[in-house]
Amino acid sequence: MIARFRQGNMNASSTPSFKVYPNYFRGKVLHIVSRHQKQQFLEPVLASRLGFVCKTVSEVDTDLLGTFSGEVARTLSPVACAREKCKRAREFVSDGYLLASEGSFGPHPTLGWVTAGEEWLFLYDIEEDAELIVRDITLDTCFWRQAISSEQQCLDFLQRVGFPSQRVIVKSSQEQADFIFKNGSTPEEIVQNMRFLLNAKRNCYIETDMRAMFNPTRQQHLVKLAQILADKLNSICPACGWYGFSVTSVERGLPCSWCGTATNSVLNDIYTCKRCNWQHNKKFPQGIQQEDPQYCNQCNP
Ligand SMILES: [Zn+2]
Ligand SMILES: [Zn+2]
């Protein structure tokens, strides 16, 4: 298996070159586990950059693991949830690779005051029983929710979020709603659903539909995730030839250009092979050898 990766004069003693081996995945089958048409956004990148033959596994009811609209609470972490989707898809697939994604939306984990979209792709290599995960976080997300009680409020919301390319959900309560309307495709229909809820339940909430096929900003993010995954799969361990050779930690301490003190900025990216544990330090990954004094605790305390 490992030998298949070896090509030309690449061997353990050569200088790490991060050369890619472009044909390893060509013709192999990638099963994308999705009921929300994610293959539309993942397949073009993964098929063109890696040569995967993509198929869709739509038999797994991924909504059972949690829905954005709240009917089913997601109890697993996003990674565990994506892993579980692949696990359930194993029933329908015997070889190749499985790919599932999971998204999470809400306050940015470190900035807090802005809304962020976090997305994970989980790849499972059936033959090798190996997994590979990529994650990305973006501020470019369409995630809004509010209570509405008038037609004008409803129409304003639709305009703000970019309806109808961005779809919305109307429901009777923020959490544990007993009425949820998911598929309104015209403003008239949404307003009608709102009126029904205001009459029946006295409350109406409207929110952006976060399912991939109804959320264009999420679709763009999935395309970006597919690129990140392709980069990672194309990054080959110089020692053993295994795919997914990537940054696993960083070493801080980039020296200040004025006083030479070690700053908190990254000095080395540390790459580790998941298969053979070979490590490589990539010095000055940001392309600078000294840090600007404004980031130095001595010069700019
Ligand atoms: Zn290796
Ligand atoms: Zn300094």
Question: Can you tell me about this structure?
Answer:
The chain is flat. It is built from five helices and twelve strands. Helix 1 runs parallel beside helix 5 and helix 3 (151-161) crosses helix 4. The protein folds into three domains: 21-141 and 213-234, Maf protein, CATH 3.90.950.10; 145-208, Dna Ligase, domain 1 (2-Layer Sandwich); 248-295, no CATH class. It has a five-stranded mixed β-sheet with strand order 2-1-3-4-5, sandwiched between helices. Strands 6-9-7-8 form a four-stranded antiparallel β-sheet, with helices on one face. It is of the alpha+beta class and 301 residues long. 23% of the residues lie in helices and 24% in strands. It has helices spanning 39-50, 78-89, 151-161, 187-200, 216-234, and strands spanning 29-33, 53-57, 97-107, 115-125, 130-138, 145-147, 168-171, 180-181, 205-208, 246-252, 266-272, 279-283. The termini are far apart. The structure holds zinc ion (2 copies). Residues 256, 258-259, 261, 293, 296, 298-299 line the site of one zinc ion.
Present the secondary structure layout:
Blueprint: E1 29-33, H1 39-50, E2 53-57, H2 78-89, E3 97-107, E4 115-125, E5 130-138, E6 145-147, H3 151-161, E7 168-171, E8 180-181, H4 187-200, E9 205-208, H5 216-234, E10 246-252, E11 266-272, E12 279-283
Parallel strand pairs: 1-2, 1-3
Antiparallel strand pairs: 3-4, 4-5, 6-9, 7-8, 7-9, 10-11, 11-12
Helix pairs in contact: 1-5, 3-4
One zinc ion binds at residues 237, 239-240, 242, 273, 275-276, 278.
